[in-house]
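Researcher: Quick test of sequence recovery. Tokens follow.
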């Protein structure tokens, strides 16, 4: 599910209004009243009394069996098994709890509006020194972004609502630079009116107040063939069960999957996911050897670059982390990225649609 589903953010974003993402703070739980949706803060479970129902999506309720608890984590969802808690994580690494038609947006890799980022510090990854990869940065304490021009950061569109132009700062090359304006892909949207809804054309740009004191990474406009090895580099959590562990830079090697293999794996991992995969603008990866622990992006990795080439030898960005199901925990479920080769006009545009005010999530009634 989308990391609005892997979208777990660390910081406390601005208070959400109707139609926007609701922040979920970690370490606390909230009472659930019949007929209402509530944000559940990570790390605690909500007790539900026998015979009562808990509102999950606007206008709908879900029966909860007596004697069981449900832990809701932003950005992702998992099966509800007896004796265990159910993680509801926003779109690939972190779901966002929403007030509106999308009561819960699938796992996106963002941490921001919900929890500490999870699209994460790359599950089953290797820790690396930020100083060796200065162009890859933390964004809004919830996502990852990459410098692609002296003043321009590339990230996931579903992360942009966590950024406030004029206030949000990015630490890069030893400096803290303010973001002065943002742009989201004009065709960005979620692919379903209800959960699980994944992001489509999930790319965005953020412009800094001054040129960063580090060299940008190159963007590759060539498609990556199935079977090719790629590397994910992100600040997301390295443990699907600890979405708050955001902020450590890690990398992992992944393999690009063909469309048929990807859809089959998504269908096996969760209902409703395979149908939202769009091969022209999305790229699918999995752990290369299929052995636990499965390498994958996770909470907080939303917006992280997928790289072709050795990390120490001018790697190129081929995609941006977008969404997933369970951070690889469901038998190596796939991680889905936004292809940059399909979005060259947007990434290179002099004016991609800049905004100097915060951009809200595009939640609206009815089908998208």
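Model:
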């Amino acid at each position: 599910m989308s990391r609005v589903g892997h979208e777990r953010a660390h910081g406390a974003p601005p208070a959400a209004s109707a139609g926007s993402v609701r922040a979920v703070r970690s370490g606390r739980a909230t009472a659930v009243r019949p007929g209402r949706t509530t944000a559940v803060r990570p790390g605690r479970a909500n007790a539900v009394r026998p015979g009562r129902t808990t509102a999950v999506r606007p206008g709908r309720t879900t029966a909860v069996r007596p004697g069981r608890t449900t832990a809701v984590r932003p950005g992702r969802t998992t099966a509800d098994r007896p004796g265990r808690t159910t993680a509801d994580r926003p779109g690939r690494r972190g779901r966002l709890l929403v007030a509106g038609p999308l009561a819960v947006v699938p796992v996106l890799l963002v941490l921001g509006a919900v929890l500490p980022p999870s699209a994460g510090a790359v599950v089953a990854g290797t820790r690396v020194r930020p100083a060796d990869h200065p162009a890859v940065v933390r964004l809004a304490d919830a996502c990852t972004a990459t410098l692609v021009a002296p003043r321009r950061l590339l990230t996931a569109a579903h992360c942009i609502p966590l950024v406030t132009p004029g206030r949000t700062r990015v630490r890069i090359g030893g400096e803290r630079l303010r973001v002065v304006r943002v742009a989201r892909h004009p065709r960005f949207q979620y692919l379903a009116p209800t959960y699980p809804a994944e992001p489509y054309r999930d790319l965005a740009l953020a412009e800094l107040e001054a040129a960063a004191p580090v060299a940008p990474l190159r963007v590759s406009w060539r498609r990556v063939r199935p079977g090719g090895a790629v590397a994910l580099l992100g600040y997301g959590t390295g443990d699907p069960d600890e979405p708050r562990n955001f902020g450590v830079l890690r990398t992992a090697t992944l393999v690009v999957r063909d469309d048929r293999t990807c859809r089959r794996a998504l269908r096996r991992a969760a209902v409703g996911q395979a149908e939202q995969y769009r091969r022209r603008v999305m790229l699918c990866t999995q752990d290369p050897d299929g052995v636990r622990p499965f390498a994958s992006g996770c909470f907080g990795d939303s917006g992280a670059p997928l790289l072709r080439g050795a990390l120490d030898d001018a790697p190129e960005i081929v995609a941006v982390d977008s969404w997933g199901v369970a951070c690889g925990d469901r038998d190596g479920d796939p991680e889905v990225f936004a292809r940059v080769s399909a979005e060259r006009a947007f990434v290179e545009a002099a004016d991609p649609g800049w905004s100097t005010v915060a951009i809200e999530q595009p939640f609206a009634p009815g089908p998208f």
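Residues 1-109, 111-121 have pLDDT under 50 and may be disordered.
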